[in-house]
């Protein structure tokens, strides 16, 4: 009889310990979520700056004579047509196709937003990697803020260039090699990292 009582007492104590651990985990997750939301609020001013700069007219020299000039050549002569007097027309970038679609729809402001979108995508890649690698959300959020707050990244995000596209695909390829188990870069049709490297 005493052994049965001791067994019930032990089970009750162990049950209390497990319930306390569960409550502590819930509190820790709640505090982590609150901290992450506060950190995300710090990213809003930088995102607002990028948004406002993207609304400005295109005045950058490289954008006018190269990155937007090539889509204009395609609009005039046909898609993927080349101009023998402009060497850059022989090696178009993937982003130039997106710029061509924007100009064809008469949305001159859209190329800047497309270019800035690749900065956000790169930040999401780094955020996902750090979150899954360290299991600490606040570090991932801080890394996200760090990338979008770098002055040169903000400047490039407000221009119709191709640099941030290169940054995104390079980061994607590197993460696929370093962390092939990462959920955000896993390709359902291939598991050897080939698609990301080719991109």
Task: Please describe what this structure looks like.
The protein is mostly helical and 199 residues long. It has a domain at 43-58 and 108-198. It is built from nine helices and no strands. The longest helix is centred in the first third of the chain and has 53 residues, at 2-54. Residues 2-27 and 187-199 have low confidence and may be disordered.
Question: How would you summarize the topology of this molecule?
Answer:
Elements: H1 2-54, H2 61-67, H3 69-77, H4 94-104, H5 110-134, H6 137-149, H7 151-157, H8 163-178, H9 194-198
Helix pairs in contact: 1-6, 3-4, 4-5, 5-6, 5-7, 5-8
- Helix content percent band: over 70%
- Secondary structural class: mainly alpha
Unreliable runs? 2-27, 187-199
- The chain-level mean pLDDT equals 76
Ends distance:
71 Å
Strand portion:
under 5%
**How many distinct beta strands?**
0
How does the major sheet shape up? none
Count of helical regions: 9
**H/E element string?**
HHHHHHHHH
Return Rg in Å: 25 Å
Using the alpha-carbon principal axes, give the shape: globular
Oligomer: single chain
């Amino acid at each position: 009889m005493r052994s049965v009582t001791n067994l019930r007492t032990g089970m009750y104590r162990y049950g209390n310990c497990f319930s306390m651990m569960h409550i502590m985990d819930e509190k820790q997750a709640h505090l982590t979520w609150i901290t992450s939301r506060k950190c995300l609020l710090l990213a809003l001013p930088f995102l607002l700056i990028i948004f406002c700069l993207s609304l400005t007219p295109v005045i950058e020299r490289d954008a006018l004579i190269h990155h937007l000039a090539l889509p204009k050549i395609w609009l005039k002569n046909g898609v993927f047509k080349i101009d023998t007097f402009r060497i850059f027309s022989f090696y178009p970038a993937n982003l130039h196709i997106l710029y061509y679609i924007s100009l064809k729809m008469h949305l001159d402001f859209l190329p800047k937003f497309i270019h800035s979108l690749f900065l956000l995508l790169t930040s999401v890649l780094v955020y996902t990697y750090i979150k899954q690698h360290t299991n600490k959300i606040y570090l991932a959020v801080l890394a996200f803020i760090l990338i979008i707050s770098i002055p040169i990244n903000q400047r490039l995000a407000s221009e119709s260039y191709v640099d941030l596209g290169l940054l995104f695909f390079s980061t994607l390829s590197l993460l696929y090699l370093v962390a092939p188990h990462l959920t955000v870069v896993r390709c359902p049709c291939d598991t050897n990292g080939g698609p990301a490297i080719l991109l």
